[in-house]
Every structure is written in C-alpha cells, then in structure tokens.
Amino acid sequence: MTAATGPAAPISEPSADVPPAAEGAGALRIRGVDLGFTTRDGGRLAVLDGIDLDVPGGGIVALIGPNGCGKSTLLRVIAGLLRPDGGVVTLDGGPITDPDPAIGLVFQEARLLPWRSAADNITYPLELAGWSRERRVDRLATLAELVALDPGVVANRPAELSGGTRQRVALARALALEPRVLLLDEPFSALDALSRERFDLELLRLWERAATTIVLVTHSIAEAILVADRVVVLSPRPGRVVADVPVDLPRPRDLADLDEAVVSRTAREIRAHLGDAAAIAAGLEVTA
Amino acid sequence: MSRSAIGSVVATLVGFVLLWQAVVLLSGFPEYILPPPASVFERFVEAFLQGIIQPHLWTTLVEILLGFAVGAGLAVIAGYVLARSAVVERLLSPYLVALQATPILALAPVMALWFGPGLLGKVVICALIVFFPVAVATMVGIRSVDERLLELGRSLRATRRQVLTTLEIPAALPSILGGMRVGVTLAVVGAIVGEWAGAERGLGVLINLARGSLFDIPLLFATLLTIALVGIALYLLVVAIERRLVGAR
C-alpha cells in the first residue's frame, strides 16, 4: 500500500513538507483529462479540457475556479464516478476507472442516509464492504475520535444533528475504509465563516494523523491557502489548469498564519490568475 | 398517542353515538330500518358470546391477510420494476389502469366462477384490489429516491442488491407503507365483496344471513360494526409498523 511500489513511481518530485503520516498516502497523476456532456439539443458541452495535475502522496492540493468550471466534475473523475472522454487518472500507478476503496469522497452536502443513526452512517461503507459487527463497532470508535464527534450524538438521526456535526459524520464515513486519497467537494461551504475556519484547522490536524492525500475543491481563496500545499486555479468552462500556485507557509498551520505577508501575496497571485482565467474565457467567446 | 389525543378520539366516538341515537329518536325509524346504538351494541356483545360472529370473522380475516400479503408482495415487486424500466411501464400500465378501473364488484363473480366459492377466490380478489395502490406507491417511492444517495452508493461500490436493500427500499419505505395503508382497508372491501359473490362463511355471508333468512337487523349492524373494527385495527397495525420502521427521520 506504499506510494513508491507502483511501476510508474516516482510520479512527481517529493514535496518538502510531507508529514510523517504520509506513508501509505496515495499519489495521484492526472494526464490530459477531457470530458464533455451531451446537451439537450444534441450538442457537446466541453467541461474539462486537457487537465494535467500531479498530487504527491500525502500532499494537499486545493482546486479553485469560477462557478461551473468543472471543479466538482474533475473530482468525480478522480473518484471514478465519471469516465473521462480522454486522458487518464492513476492512483499510485494504477488507472482509476471505477470507484475505488482507496479513495474517500466528501460531498458538498453531508449526504447522510436520513433513516440511519450517525453511527450507522459512519459505518455504512464498512457494512457494504462486508465487515462484521464487532469490527465495525471498533472502527467506529476510532473514526468518531478522529473527527472529534461528540459521543453523545452517535445514536442520533441526521435530522437531529447540526450542519457541522453532519459534515463530521460525512468526513468520518469517507475515512472509514482508510482511504489513501480524500476528495473534498466544498465540504464546509454550508457552514458559517467561523465554523468553517475551525473545520479547516481540524481537517489539517486530521490529515497529520491519517495517512492520506487530500484534494479540496473550494470557492474560498483563504481556505485554499490555509489548507493546501498548492492551489490549482482552473479557468471558466471548459476547465483548464491556468496556474499552480505553491503556498509557502510552514506546517503545522494556524489561523494566525493567515496574517503573514506571504498569504496576501499568494492570495493576490491566485486572484490575478482567476482574473486571467475569466479574461481568457471572455476572449475565447469573442473569437469563437 | 398522547392523553389529549386519546381524549379527542373518545369524544368523537361519544359524539357519533349520540348523533346516531338522536337520528333514531327524531326520525322515529323502526328498529328494522335503523336500530338504536344500544341495541346494536347489545346484539354485538350477545352475538360474540353466542359465538355467532367469530367463525365468520376468522374466515374473513384469513382472506384479508392472505390476500393482502399476496397482493402487496407482488405489488412491491411490480412497482419496483415499473419504476426502473420505462419499457415495462409503457407496456403494462394500460393493463394496470384497466384493472383498477374495472369495479371489483364486476370482477368478483368471474373470480368466483374461476376459483370456486372457497378461500382461493377471495384471496385473489383481495390481492387484485390491494395491488394497484401499493404498486403505484412503490413506483413513486422508488422513482423519488434521491439521486445523490444513489451516487453515494456508487462511490462506495454498493452492489445492485445492496443499493436495493440499503438505499432504495429504506428511502421508498414511507411511500410504500402509505400505499399499504390504503391497500389494507381495500382488502377488507375485497373480502366482503368476494363473499357476496359466493361463499359459505365470512362476515359478508353473515350480513346476507342477517338481512335475509334471519332478519336480525341488529345483528346486521353488529356485523357492520365488526367489519369496521377489523378495518380500523388493520389500518392502525400498518400505522404502527410505519412508526416503528420509519419513525423519526
């Protein structure tokens, strides 16, 4: 299960600040991924256009871009839920064509089964994978602790939980099968700004302990900088990588780090690329 | 049920009995047209003590329960297939609607002709009448399962069977049980209609006996009361199962 055993490894240059827990985390390699949808009138709508991206094992990459740029679509391709029209996604050298237990996915909404308790939602993937009850109960304790879930609410149904707690449950569920890669699709966007910062920090603490690579789709430049090693900027549809901005902040990070000069410099750079991206799209529309 | 809810149920019941008594007093109808509540209740207790009603009641109950089980069971399967296959829905729905549009009263003699005056004919009639509401409720329930939950299932590599048992059925359960609430009361209707078309025993037979050869109008009303109670009891049973299974979501 180590990143370096696949024939295609090493996939990218080793990152300087990969934490010790990264052993066992998966390396993603995305090459030339194209994807289009057929529109109602039979036309073709290009959503992703030649996406190239490497995420080293144990790294955190944030994907940022305007609405409708295909961020979530790209995440679904990596998750094996969508097959690209062209290009490949590999995890530790093996191509991903179908959902894989090594990849955990957290959606924008918690997406819990309303008829199950929080505990049964967390262990749902284990149940589907055929784990025995005792093993599930064991694993549940570890997972609840990992995402700092209040033990008083594990028996509650989702409707009885707060938005933040539901997202914790969803996160625990995504981690249930010890994925090597965790994909997060704007997981905290429904939370208020203060909770969101707290969750971002908790995500970092969690990442330090769990051996996992993270790809985070976000709308927030601040969130991207706080969490990620690199911020990848996508253009408006069809999504293309327009910039890959490194975040030069030491780890472990804290909210105070957001006051550093390097943060505003990075944010300015990302904003400039987002602006470029919009301009490119506008230009393309004029020439098309 | 809360104390105030029980109170209002009792109050409504008392009001209904008083209204009935008032109609009897004001109209001056003779007992063979509309017996007063007291004599119906008296006859009801007496008939049970004499063991007149029980054999008919058991016969009818068995018909209802078997017919419901067969009809609802097949309807859930059919509703699922209808929901997931557009071709099947196009081909079969005209027949389903035709079946539903044909009065069960008109079908009952045919069923009696084909299946005889015994249990089988009644089970078939009950099953036919239960089928439509449960099949439609299942179809609607399965169709309205949240696509996002199905995507979650896919991302977790759920097998076809796991999707069915852990996502589709639990998600559609409130709808399916809603159809069963309607179905179970219709099963009572089916059993009585089936008995009218030809039977040796059953509450429907007892109604005919009380009205005809016995000319015991209080017994006729006591039988009606029994039928109503059976319907209420079965309905409440489905509601209780619903509470248990669906509960607080």
Query: Low-confidence parts of chain A, pLDDT < 50 over ≥5 residues?
Result: 1-16
Mean pLDDT of chain A: 86
- Look at the structure and give the CATH class of the largest domain in chain A: Alpha Beta
Per CATH, the class of the largest domain in chain B reads: Mainly Alpha
And the CATH topology of the largest domain in chain A? Rossmann fold
Write the H/E string of chain B, N to C: HHHHHHHHHH
Question: Could you explain the architecture of this structure?
Answer:
The complex is a heterodimer of chains A (288) and B (249). With 288 residues, chain A is α/β, with parallel strands linked by helices. Chain A has eight helices and ten strands. Chain A has helices at 71-78, 118-122, 124-128, 133-146, 163-175, 193-209, 221-227, 261-287, and strands spanning 28-38, 44-55, 60-64, 86-91, 94-95, 103-106, 181-185, 213-218, 230-234, 241-246. In chain A, the strands form two sheets. Chain A has a six-stranded mixed β-sheet with strand order 6-7-8-3-9-10, with helices on both faces. Chain A has a four-stranded antiparallel β-sheet with strand order 2-1-4-5, with helices on one face. In chain A, a hairpin with a 6-residue loop joins strand 9 and strand 10 (241-246). Chain A is globular, with a radius of gyration of 19 Å. Chain A starts with 27 loop residues before the first strand and ends with a helix. Residues 1-16 of chain A have low confidence and may be disordered. Chain B has 249 residues and is an all-alpha fold. Chain B folds into two domains: 1-30; 34-245, Orthogonal Bundle (MetI-like fold), CATH 1.10.3720. Chain B is built from ten helices and no strands. Chain B has helices at residues 3-27, 37-49, 53-84, 86-101, 104-115, 119-143, 147-155, 160-196, 203-211, 217-245. In chain B, helix 5 crosses helix 8. Chain B is globular, with a radius of gyration of 22 Å.
